[in-house]
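This protein record is not my work; I was only asked to verify it. Would you go through it and say whether the fold makes sense for this chain? Here is the record exactly as it was handed to me.
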Amino acid sequence: MKSTSFGRAATVRTAMLAGVAALAIPTAAFAQDADLEDQDEDVEVSNVIIVTATKREQTLQETPISVSVTTGETLEQAQIRDVLDLQTVAPSLRVSQLQNSSSSTFIIRGFGNGDNNFGIEPSVGVFIDGVFRSRSASSLNDLANVQRIEVLNGPQSTLFGKNASAGVISVITRAPQFQFGGSIEASYGNYNNVQIKGDITGPITDSLAFSVDGSYNKRDGYGTIVNLDEDINDRDRWTARGQLLFEPTDTLRIRAIGDYSKIDESCCVVSTLVAGPTALAVVGVGGQLSTDFFSYESYLNKVPVNKVENYGGSLQADLEFGALSLTSITAYRELKNYVDQDVDFTSADIVNEIRDQKVETFTQELRLSSDFDGPLNFLLGGFFFDEKVKQDSSLTTGADGRAFFSLLAGNPQVFNGVEAALGLQQGSIFSPGLLTTEDYSLDNTSWSVFGTVDFEPIDGLVLTGGFNYTHDKKDFALTGVAFDELANINLVDAFITGATGGAVTSRAAFLALPEANRNVLQALATTACTPTSAQGTCNPLLGLTPFQFQPPFLSIPNAVEDGRTRDNDLSYTLRAAYQFSDSINGYVSYATGFKASSINLSRDSRPTFGDYRPGPVRSTFLAPSSPVLDGGIAVPNLNTGSRFAGPEDAEVWEIGFKGEWDGLNVNLALFDQTLKGFQSFLFTGTGFQLNNAGEQSVKGFELDTRIRPVDGLVFTFALTYLDPKYNSFTDSPVGDLSGERPGGIPEYNIATSATYTHEFGASGNRLITRVDFSHESNTDVNNGLPTFNASLGNTRVFKREVNLVNASMTLALDSGIELGLYARNLLDDEYIQTVFDGVAQSGTVSGYPSAPRTWGGLVRFKF
C-alpha cells in the first residue's frame, strides 16, 4: 500500500524517493545520495528503488510491469548526457539519430516511428516530470539534475492519459529541497568538449523551496566538411531550469517548473556506401562526395544549420484528503525547429532544403487515487491534449542543378531541345531558385479518460483491471507549389496533344473523340505509354520521366479530401500479480494500446488510392474515373501516396517473474506483442512514405539481473531477445514483406556492467570504477531501399552490429569533491546507423556512421 506524506514529518520517506537508492536495473549502483546521509541508520535503502511506473510509489521488485530504471548516479558515472546515450543501459530501447540534431527515433521492442516528420504520432511516449513531450526534438537536450529514468516496455494506456502504443520513457528530475545544497561540475574532453553543469537548491521559507539548474555543452565537430574546411557533428547547446516547491500543509504540495533550452549545431556526417552511376555526373560538374564511410569526411556546398528552441512550464499540485489523493498537472510548451542544409550531400550545388517548424502544446492531466486499507483501490484520471503544428519548407535548385541533370540525360543541351519542343522558355528547366515551397499546418485535440482498479481478494494476490477511452481529432492543411516547368507537364498527355495536332488538350477532349476513332485512340494511347518499340513507334518524351521528381502538389483540404481525421478507442489492461514469498513476485497480463492517425507533413503526401487512380505514367488523359478526377481538381503527374496512416492498435501478452535474494536480483518478462495497422514510415529521397503495414508482431523476453558477490562490487546483466515479423505488409515501398523479419531490429540486445566501489577505511573517501558493455547482434539495417533495390534489381541489404564499451573512474572525497575520467565507445567500434537512397542520385546509397571514441576528465563538487 502507498503511504505518502508531504510534510517534514515524512523526511525518511521523502529521502528514499528523492535519493533513489541503489538498485538500478539494468544499471545497478549503490545509492550515495547526500540526502540520505543524515537519515536514521536503521533505514535500509541499499537494495530498494522506488518507481512510479504504475503512478503509485512501489519498489521496482513490486512493480508488475516490465520496466528498467537508470538512476541519476548511474547517469553521472556512465557520462550519459542525453537520451541518445540511454540505449546503452536499457537494452529494450533503441534511439536512432537521423539527418539533423532534432530528428531522432525512439524504438522499444522494435516498435517506433521516425520523428523527422512532425505529423507522425510517436509510438514511444516521452514524459518529463509527468509532462508529455510530443516530439523527440523537445527532449534531446542534455539531461540535468535527473533523479531517475524509467523505461516502460510495451503499450501504456491505462496509466498515461496520452496513449503510447509501444512504450514510455519517463524522466523524473529532483524536486527542490528544504535543505540547502547543490553541485557544480566541469569537464573537458577530446574534440575540445567543454561541459559545465550545476544546480542549487534550498529553502526560501519554511514552506517554500527553490532549485535552479543548468548545463552548457560545446564541442568541435568530429567530422569535417573537406571542401569548406568546416566542422560537422559539433555540440553547441545549453539548458536552464527553475523550480519552486510550495508545501503550505502536510497534505498539499505544489511544484512549478519553468525551463528553456537551445541547440545551435551542424549535423550530421553523411558518407557514401555505394557510389552509383550518378557519381560521374557529380564529378562532371566539379563536385565531390565522400566514399570512405568511417572517415567522418563530408562534402557539402554549405554548412548545415540546425537550430532548436524548446521552452515551457508546468504546474503540478498534489492534495491528500484522507485516503484519497488528487493530482493535477498543467503544462504549456513551445518548440521551434529550423533546418537549412544541403540534401544531396555532395559538394556540387544541386538541391538544398529549408524547414522551419513550430509546435505549441497544452496538456492538462487530473488524477484521483485511493489508499484504502481494504482490498480495493483505484486510480481515475482524465487527460486533455491540444497541439498546433506549423511548418514552412522549401527545396531549392542549386547553381549546378541543370548541368548535373543534363549530364545524367547524356546530353548537355538536352533540356534546350525539350524546352523548344514543349514551348517552354529557354533555360527554365532546373533553373537556379525555388524548386518547391510547402506550407503545412496541423491542429490536434484529444482527450481521454483512464483508470485502474486493484482488488486484493487474498494476501499477496492483486487483480488489476484498467481502461483508457481516447477521442482524437486532427485537422490539417497542406499546400505546395512545384516551380519546375518540366514536372508540371505529363509526358504521356503532352505526346497525345502533339500527336493530335493540338486537338486534344484535356481528358474531356480525349474522351470526346468520335466513336469511329476508337481504334486510333487505343493505338495512340499505347504509343504514348511506350518508351521504346521494335516498330520504331514510341514516345521519346518518356525518357524524361526520371527528371520529374517534384511534380505539382494537390493541396488539402479540397473538394474531395476534407483534411480531417476522427478516432475513438477503448484500450484496456487485465493483470494478475502474486507475491509467492518475500523474495518472489510474479504477474501475468494482457493489455491493448492505441495510437491515433498520423499525418504525412511532407511533399510526398498524396491522395489515397480510393480518392484518385492515376493513369499509365501518371497520365490524366488515360486515368480512370475517380472522385479527384471527376471533381476537376487533379493536377499534372498526380500519383497516389500517403496523406495519412490510420490508427495503430497494439496488444501484448506478458508473463513476468521478479526475484530478490541476498546479493541477487532477477527480473524476467516473456511477451508476445502485436501492432495492427503499424504506421510504417520511410524516407523516399525528398519526402516520406507513410502507410499502414497490415500487422507486425514480436515475440521475445527481457532478462535483468543484478549480482553483488561482495560488498562494493556489483555486476549487472540485461538481455533482450526479439523475434519480430511482418505478419502482413503487402504495400511496402520495397514490395510485399509479409512473413519477413522487419529490418533494424536486432535479435539480441545486451547491456552489462561491472561497478566496484573501494572505500578508503572510515574516511568517507571512495574510488568508483565502472565498465559497461552494450551489444546489438548483427542485423539488416532495413528491408531495402526503394530506389537502390528497385532500379538496380539489387537485393543487397546493409547490416549493422554494435559492440560498445564505456568506462569511467571517479574519486569521490568526503569533502564533496569528485575527480573523474571517462570514455565512451572506448574501443572505437564502427557501425552503420542507417542508410538511405541518395537524393536525386539513382543507385547511390548514403548513410550515417556511428560516433567515434570520446573521452575526458571532470571535476565535481557537491555541497
User: Anything to note?
Assistant: The chain has one domain: 8-484+555-572+590-606+641-862. The chain is about 10% helix and 50% strand. The first strand starts at residue 50 and ends at 51. The longest helix spans residues 518-528.
